[in-house]
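> forwarded from #structure-qc
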């Protein structure tokens, strides 16, 4: 049925309520422009369904033009001719849109993330969020999770692979799989499509983290000690961070996220293996550890000296290594890029201090391998939670960490030192 048009653009533009609360201007076949006393203008569609008069809002004039309102009228007339109630359909469409919004991959992923994040270390939680927000949400985020297909998921992940980031591609695939399985479990997804993609990505060949040989450690230590001097003139905080990493050989993320409330720097020193108290201590909570188990790091006098110097630089920040914004720590790359500036690109990483310390301590023949492994926070896979003891071998580990700090100081001094009588805690 063709509508009989009665209005014009000029009529709509110039229309007033003529002193009435509402003036209704008809355009034919149920379409009206309602003009209010305060100047507001709304399009409404009047129609009959099962003998009852109904009304439907079609938008605000002039945002919704006369031509646009007429197109909506034609769509409504078509629905009526097919026996469809336009009001009921609009409500159904709104409900479907809301359901679709909570069933998108991004919505399901964020819900899954919220369920899991409290079980992860802060660094891992940040990595997972970045993997989703940077690599997946731009391509799959708005898609209803139930409509995804294996080729679609593969295409999104292959974009990462094509950047040469094969390891990241596999890690993102794992995260996507967990989200899809959560979608199935909550009744919004059909299946985990990543199960069909096994073998579809280029295999990642994992290499060891770069680490200098033990024999090159003295020069590295001297180079670090001079990091904030000419010609590099780096930040003192970064130099101290590298020195603390060498002394404690914790994971880089464990040091970056360290807060001052984790440290007891005032306990009396007593490295005697038979002593009950073991001196200053760094207690890293389970939430920040890779293995989700709390870890204790005995602090030799050299470590305490470095930490006190860092405390002066940190000011009121809760972080041992605050970034430009005191409420946040330094970035993951700060220490790595410092090693690059020192000429160790491809030769040494923050993680490499763990490998060097492990090798040197084992080769010294002074310490049991169990002490070294526990201080590296390497927990045997068969050790159940109830049997885990964060203080296991602690007196012996304390004596070992004191020896290691003294050994590092001795390595700093040679016949041709980088700077005379250099000391790690200088």
């Amino acid at each position: 049925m063709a509508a009989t048009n009665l209005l014009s653009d000029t009529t709509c533009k110039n229309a007033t309520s003529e002193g009435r609360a509402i003036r209704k201007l008809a355009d034919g076949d149920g379409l009206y422009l309602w003009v209010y006393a305060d100047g507001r203008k709304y399009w409404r569609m009047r129609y009959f369904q099962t003998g009852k008069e109904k009304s439907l809002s079609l938008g605000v004039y002039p945002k919704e033009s006369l031509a646009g309102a007429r197109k909506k009228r034609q769509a409504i007339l078509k629905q009526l001719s097919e026996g469809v109630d336009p009001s009921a359909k609009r409500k159904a469409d709104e409900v479907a849109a809301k359901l679709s919004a909570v069933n998108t991959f991004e919505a399901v992923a964020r819900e899954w993330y919220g369920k899991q994040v409290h079980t992860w270390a802060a660094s891992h939680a940040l990595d997972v969020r970045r993997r989703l927000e940077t690599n997946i949400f731009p391509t799959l985020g708005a898609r209803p999770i139930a409509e995804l297909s294996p080729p679609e998921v593969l295409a999104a992940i292959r974009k990462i692979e094509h950047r040469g980031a094969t390891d990241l591609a596999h890690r993102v695939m794992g995260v996507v799989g967990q989200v899809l399985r959560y979608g199935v479990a909550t009744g919004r997804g059909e299946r985990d499509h990543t199960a069909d993609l096994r073998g579809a990505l280029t295999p990642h060949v994992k290499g060891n983290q770069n680490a200098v040989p033990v024999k090159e450690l003295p020069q590295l230590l001297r180079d670090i000690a001079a990091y904030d001097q000419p010609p590099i003139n780096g930040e003192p905080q970064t130099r101290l961070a590298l020195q603390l990493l060498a002394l404690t050989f914790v994971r880089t993320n464990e040091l970056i996220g360290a807060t001052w409330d984790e440290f007891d720097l005032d306990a009396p020193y007593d490295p005697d293996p038979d002593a009950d108290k073991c001196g200053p201590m760094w207690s890293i909570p389970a939430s920040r550890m890779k293995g989700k188990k709390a870890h204790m790091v005995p602090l030799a006098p050299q470590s305490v000296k470095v930490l006190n110097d860092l405390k002066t630089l940190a000011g009121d920040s809760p972080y041992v290594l605050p970034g430009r914004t005191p409420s946040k720590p330094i970035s993951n790359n700060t220490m790595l890029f410092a090693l690059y500036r020192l000429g160790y690109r491809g030769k040494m990483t923050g993680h490499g201090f763990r490998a060097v310390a492990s090798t040197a301590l084992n080769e010294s023949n002074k310490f049991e391998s169990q002490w070294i492994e526990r201080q590296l926070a390497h927990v045997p896979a068969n050790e159940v939670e109830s049997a885990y003891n964060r203080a296991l071998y602690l007196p012996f580990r304390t004596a070992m960490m004191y020896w290691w700090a003294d050994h590092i100081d001795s390595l700093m001094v040679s016949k041709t030192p980088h700077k005379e009588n250099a000391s790690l805690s200088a």
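QC bot note: The chain has three domains: 9-87, 105-197, 214-412. Residues 22 and 207 are 76 Å apart (CA to CA).
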